[in-house]
Amino acid sequence: MVGKHSKVKKSKPLLGNHQKCWIWGRNAVRETLSAGFWKIWELYLSEKLPAEEIAELETRAAQLSVPVIVTTDKTLTQKSRAGDHQGMIAKMAPFPYAAAEEVLAQNTDTPLYLILDRIQDPYNFGAIIRSAEILGADAVFIGEQEQCDVTSLVCRTSAGAVNHIALAQVSDLVAFCQHLKSENINVLGTAMQAEETLVDYAFQKPTALIVGNEGTGVHPELIAACSHLIRIPQQGQTESLNVAVSAGILLYEASRQRGFQ
């Protein structure tokens, strides 16, 4: 029984359960620590890391009030349940998604947004985020249903890019697309049967680009909500490209047209 003067210690919110709250690997941990965007509860470092690197990471962690534990590789493996931690693991809070309305209010007159429709594979999700950040997208919007969340695996696959681009959840992607169009932002869908190819579209315009589910593509209701439809020309016999590869090709063409060098 808790007395009236006793304090109940509140548990810290975690990214998933205690088994899934860890991120690990050099790129993911260092980028997350450097950005200071996603809350780290605890940082564990291998005693085998170079002393100067441990000191560097401890200094940055102290700036963020993150406790640092220097310990054995075995302990890191036991906690993260991963042998490829590269001497760094971090216990994470839930991912801090941006508010969609705030993202829309902050960007330029010619934004380039990416909308993901039910991307379910964390490797694809992470790879898409990485391409979006590298190739200059202003934000990534995802739905709340049938969509992979930002997890440890997504963070690692993105090489920490989740810390450097706005990621926002939207309850209704169709309504969101209609809102974008009312704000004079072209909603660009991808469909194999589209007449226009990606090079036919002028990406210098304010654009929200949709890529769809690994198995079924962009949902028909979202296709109907698009301002334009484009396709990536294909020559081989394989039915379609991987969604992460498609997103990378489309974003590269957008960046090329916008003067990316």
From TrEMBL:
Q: Give the EC number(s) listed in the UniProt record.
A: 2.1.1.185
Q: Which key words tag this protein in UniProt? A: Methyltransferase, Transferase
**Per its UniProt entry, which superkingdom is the organism in?**
Bacteria
A single Gene Ontology molecular function, please? RNA methyltransferase activity
Q: Protein name, please?
A: 23S rRNA (Guanosine-2'-O-)-methyltransferase RlmB
Q: Which SUPFAM superfamilies match?
A: alpha/beta knot, L30e-like
Is Methyltransferase a UniProt keyword of this protein?
Answer: yes
Name the enzyme group at the top EC level: transferase
The record's Gene Ontology cellular component field reads: cytosol
Q: InterPro entries of this UniProt entry?
A: Alpha/beta_knot_MTases, Ribosomal_eL30-like_sf, rRNA_MeTrfase_TrmH, SpoU_MeTrfase, SpoU_subst-bd, tRNA_m1G_MTases_N
What is one GO biological process annotated to this record? methylation
Domain RNA 2-O ribose methyltransferase substrate binding, residue spans: 22-98
Which Pfam families does UniProt cross-reference here? SpoU_methylase, SpoU_sub_bind
Q: Which organism is it from?
A: Gimesia panareensis
